[in-house]
Write a sequence for this structure.
């Protein structure tokens, strides 16, 4: 069981997983929402337990996805595509990421000009659909 929370604690969550390795998204929407780029793990949505939703607000980020953030501290916590059964979770909000690693960077053609991509990772101009949540056990 992993736990996590936003900066102020008005959103807390936990999940037994399985937890996806971390994918960084460099698309413009992610960069504007987070202030840099979005690095997220993910769990099957049915396995995500929101243990405190006092500050949680969802908004429609595009015609295919919603995002969840904390109204108390502004933390970018969750990203969920309408057609997918998993929820991406901002890696910085997860308490213990020692067994997760960043494996892929996506939408690299929209990345900011001021930083390099990480060496040794898979780079893609689209979104990775390799992980669907329900297929993986650990
Ligand atoms: Zn908060
Ligand atoms: Zn993105």
């Amino acid at each position: 069981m992993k736990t996590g929370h936003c900066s102020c604690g008005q959103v807390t969550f936990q999940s037994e997983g399985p937890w996806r390795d971390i994918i960084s998204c460099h698309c413009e929407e992610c960069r504007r929402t987070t202030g840099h780029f979005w690095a997220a793990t993910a769990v099957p949505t049915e396995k995500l337990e929101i243990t405190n939703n006092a500050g949680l607000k969802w908004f429609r980020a595009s015609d295919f996805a919603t995002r969840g953030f904390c109204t108390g501290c502004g933390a970018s916590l969750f990203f969920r595509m309408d057609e997918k059964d998993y929820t991406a979770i901002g890696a910085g909000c997860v308490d213990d990421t020692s067994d997760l690693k960043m494996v892929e960077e996506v939408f690299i053609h929209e990345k900011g000009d001021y930083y390099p991509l990480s060496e040794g990772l898979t780079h893609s101009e689209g979104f990775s659909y390799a992980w669907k949540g329900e297929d993986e056990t650990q």
